[in-house]
Write a structure and sequence with these properties.
Elements lengths: L3 H14 L5 E6 L12 H8 L8 E3 L2 E5 L4 E6 L4 E6 L9 E7 L5 E6 L5 E6 L22 H10 L4 H6 L9 H10 L13 H20 L41 E5 L2 E5 L13
Antiparallel strand pairs: 1-6, 2-3, 3-4, 4-8, 5-7, 6-7, 9-10
Helix pairs in contact: 1-6, 5-6
The protein binds a DNA duplex through loops.
DNA sequence: CGCAGGCCCTGGTAGC
DNA sequence: TGCTACCAGGGCCTGC
């Protein structure tokens, strides 16, 4: 599942492979891939065709690509979205959703997405963060991220800690895997109340988030279910370093207690029951 | 407004 | 073997 480290790995790949190139052909193969582009596929294609891609940027799990027209192409990988760079005579992939051909005749950019939670759209304005993405908080690896402001916002919330970590308007880029990994590393239970969190706990959590995301990025991300690969089809290797996620019944790497899987928010949460004791007043 | 829960979607797998 | 149920989960939408 693409979270910050995976999306950033993809961004770096696209920065090398598509920035500076001019789009020549656009083919939308599945309507769900462009559902966020309300003006329709014809408009989507028209606003891309003939345009040069100027940069590859990211905020949280969103990517955007400023175009020489002043517009920007926005992309979200959802759960299974992939950007792949492939020679134009390569056969279509089973879940090919959008194909971009370039004026230089080089490799195509293909958006492939089995579960169709991802999508592309073209919006006005690409110089700064597009308006559609303004609701997103900065991510914890961004220099603009303000630790004190985050801690203050966190403590204003009346919810559970994991819910807050997954809220992209509070802190962006974290999904289910890295939320669990970060909470384990910081020895915090997912149901700790945000409004009662001590500053020292919040700081420890932030440090854990950065350590986990940074390590995963160094490994090229986490390929867990085979659905995430980089633009060249390569897997990420952080899955071999996961401490709790997907390790139910196996010993905690710190204390040896057995890792538990619990259902929470209709999702799985993995935790060490000893390192991450349930709070007296949990908040879900 | 803040917060919680449902829904979207596909392929793999477990269970009968 | 073939069917059903369940699982993976990010983000948008709705309702309280």
């Amino acid at each position: 599942v693409p979270e910050l480290p995976e999306v950033e790995t993809v961004r770096r790949g696209l920065e090398r492979s598509v920035v500076g190139r001019t789009v020549a052909a656009v083919e939308v193969r599945h309507p769900r891939a462009t559902r966020r582009h309300v003006a329709g596929d014809a408009d989507f294609a028209a606003r891309l065709r003939g345009r040069r891609i100027e940069a590859a940027r990211r905020r949280g799990k969103y990517l955007w690509f400023p175009l020489d027209s002043g517009d920007a192409l926005i992309a979200h990988l959802g759960m299974s979205g992939q950007f792949r760079l492939v020679e134009r005579d390569a056969p279509d992939e089973p879940h090919l959703r959008v194909r971009l051909g370039f004026a230089d005749g080089g490799p195509q950019l293909r958006f492939i997405d089995q579960r169709t939670f991802g999508g592309l759209s073209v919006v006005d304005g690409g110089a700064g963060v597009p308006g559609m993405l303004r609701h997103l908080a900065a991510d914890p690896l961004d220099g603009e991220f303000d630790d004190d402001a985050f801690i203050a916002s966190l403590r204003r919330r009346r919810t559970g800690l994991k819910r807050a970590l997954l809220d992209q308007s509070l802190i962006s880029g974290i999904g289910n895997i890295y939320a669990d990994e970060s909470l384990w590393r910081a020895r915090l239970h997912y149901a700790r109340a945000t409004d009662a969190l001590r500053r020292s706990d919040a700081l420890r959590l932030l440090a854990a988030v950065r350590a986990v995301l940074g390590a995963a990025l160094s490994d090229g991300g986490t390929t867990f279910d085979g659905l995430y690969v980089d633009v060249n089809g390569a897997s990420g290797w952080f899955s071999t370093r996961l401490a709790v996620y997907g390790r139910a019944g196996q010993p905690c790497l710190r204390c040896g207690s057995l890792v538990r899987r619990e259902t929470f928010m209709n999702r799985s949460s993995y935790l060490c029951p000893r390192c991450q004791p349930r709070p007296r007043r949990p908040r879900w």
